[in-house]
Structure formats: structure tokens, C-alpha cells
Amino acid sequence: MKSIVTRFAPSPNGMLHAGHALSAIIAHDYARDHGGRFLVRIEDIDIARARPEFVDAIFEDLAWLGLDWEHPVLVQSQHFADYLAAADKLIAQGLLYPCFASRTEIAATSDPALTDPDGAPLYPGIWRTAHPDMVNERIANGDAPALRLDMDAALRAVQARLGEAPLTFTEIDADGIARAVAAEPERWGDAVIVRKDVPASYHLAVVVDDARQGVTHVTRGDDLFAAAGLQRMLQVLLDLPEPLYSHHRLVRWADGRKLSKSNGDMGLRALRSEGATADDVRRAIGLIDG
Fold first, then answer.
1. How does pLDDT run across 248-274, given as a tens digit for each residue?
2. What CATH number is given for 79-249 in this structure?
3. Which residues, 6 or more positions from 177, have their beta carbon under 8 angstroms from its beta carbon?
4. What pLDDT does residue 38 have?
5. How far is CA 135 from CA 33, 108, 144, 154, 204, in A?
6. Beta bridge partners of 99
């Protein structure tokens, strides 16, 4: 049987909170309980917001929680060439196109009733059929494009590979039961695969790295459930292995709001400074009784 490999992959743009603790502990304990491996990955492709002090804090907080992980830790900003190589494979299939549209332009031309799973305006295809001369002119003027996935073309390419089989991903529920879930990448529209500012995007980097690191089980919050559909599509298009997914509940305030890194909600460092223990955190997030 293939050895189980899980991972916790935070972005170092703020301090970890109790919601991150839930994700990290679930992934760590699942690997430990099944004789597998637990990895930590630093997802710092948002280099404008990433900070070295947050990376250090991540390691300190995880160690305080009593977790241990394999070394060396993969740092995404050190692997941009790998993400570009993956993007080149999609370009060779005719599935990516350059887009210069700003967020303001997209918001002004999109249908307000249509949003992606993150709540952003669904891209209205401004540059999907742009003439090459227009693209070349913008590049000559020093404008950097994002590269977007031509979703209609990608859906056709996936169907050509799968034949009559539907595009699905495998979800393991809280009771440990695996089920096939219909992937719905079209909900993301022509998603950005390579950003304007860095040669990657979250969706591209995560599938490349999960494959590179041999991750077999992706455990993360259910706010990323819809992302699995788009990521499964990229795995098929790039001939990458399919991990199993388990999307757990989110840690929320009593009024239903999920915890936010930007607001410093229930920060682990603050809890530690107030005298909390790792077991106190496990109790607070419902992993142990008491």
C-alpha cells in the first residue's frame, strides 16, 4: 500500500490562528496514526505580502503545538521555474492566453450576478479572443499579462482524455468514507494560472507541489472545497497524480464568521503569551474533550 503523505501549506502573510491549528493538527495526526509522513510547505508566491518573520512564527507555532515534520521544507518562491515549466505544457496545448485586464475593468464589464467560488466577479473574457497584434503591442509597451485558462478549451481537452468518464475528485468525509464528487472547474471561469506579478498562481503551484512531494491526502478547510474541481482539472491536463481530499469544518466565531488571519483572530502566538497550552488549543477547536 502506498505510504500516506499529508501536508500543511500556510502562506506567510500573517500569524497563524486556531483555524490553521485545526488544519495542521488534522494533517499531522492523520499521517502519524497511519504510519505516514507529514510535510510543511511555505506557500509564499504572494511575495509582496510574505514576510520572513511570519515564516519563523509558523515554525514556532507548529512546534509549540507539538507537531513535527520532515525537512527540508519546500518554499514555493524558490521554485518559480517549475511552475513556468508546467504553464508551458498548458500553453503547448493551446489552453492559456494572455490577459491585461485590471480588476477594475473586469468588475466594470462582468455580470454582477456571476461570481467565482471566492466571490470575485466571473471573468467576462475580455482578452480571450484578442488579436495577437494587440497582445504584442501591450507587451512592447512593457505591460505584463496574466495567463488565463481558456476554460471551454480545457473542458474539451479533459473530456478527450477521459472519454465517457466524468471529471471527479475523491473526497473522504468525517466518517472516513470516500466518495466521488463531480468536479466543477467551470465555476471558476477562465481562471488565472500565471499571475502578472509572479510566474505562478495558487492553483498551479499547489498541484505541481502536491505531485512533486508525493502528497497522497490533501486535508484542508472546506472553504477550499470548490478549488478541488479546478485543481483536479489541472492534474488531468498536466498528467499529475490525483491525491485524496478531505475538507474539514472551519473554526468560526459564535456569530458564524470564520477566523481571519488579517484580523489576527485567535492568533496562536497571542494564545501562547496568555498562558494557553497546546491541549487548550485542541480543546478550543474541538479535537479533545474537556
1. 999 876 666 666 665 555 689 988 888
2. 3.40.50.620
3. none
4. 98
5. 53, 21, 10, 21, 23
6. 146
d(CA 126, CA 1): 48
Domain boundaries 1-78+251-290, CATH class:
alpha beta
d(CA 158, CA 285) in angstroms, rounded, equals 39
Q: What is the pLDDT of residue 252?
A: 76
Cross-strand bridge partners of residue 96: 149
Q: Dihedral of CA 204/209/212/217: which sign?
A: negative
Measured in residues, the chain has a length of 290
Could you tell me if 233 and 25 are in contact, meaning their C-beta atoms sit under 8 angstroms apart?
no
Residue 161 has pLDDT above 60, yes or no: yes
What is the separation of C-alpha 263 from the centre of its chain, rounded to a whole number of angstroms?
Answer: 21
pLDDT at 86: 98
**Mean pLDDT, rounded, of the chain:** 94
Angle at 217 between CA 15 and CA 31, to 5 degrees: 75
- pLDDT tens per residue across span 122-143: 999 999 999 999 999 999 999 9
Matching fold, domains 1-78+251-290 and 79-249: yes
pLDDT digits 0-9 by tens, 67-91: 999 999 999 999 999 999 999 999 9
Q: Where do the domains of the chain lie? A: 1-78+251-290, 79-249
The dihedral over CA atoms of 157, 244, 287, 118, expressed in degrees to the nearest 10, equals 0
Question: Given this model, what pLDDT does residue 265 score?
Answer: 57
DSSP 20-57: HHHHHHHHHHHHHHTT-EEEEEE----TTT--HHHHHH
State the virtual CA torsion across 266, 272, 275, 279 in degrees, nearest 10.
Answer: 80
Once rounded to an integer, what is the mean pLDDT over residues 142-156? 97
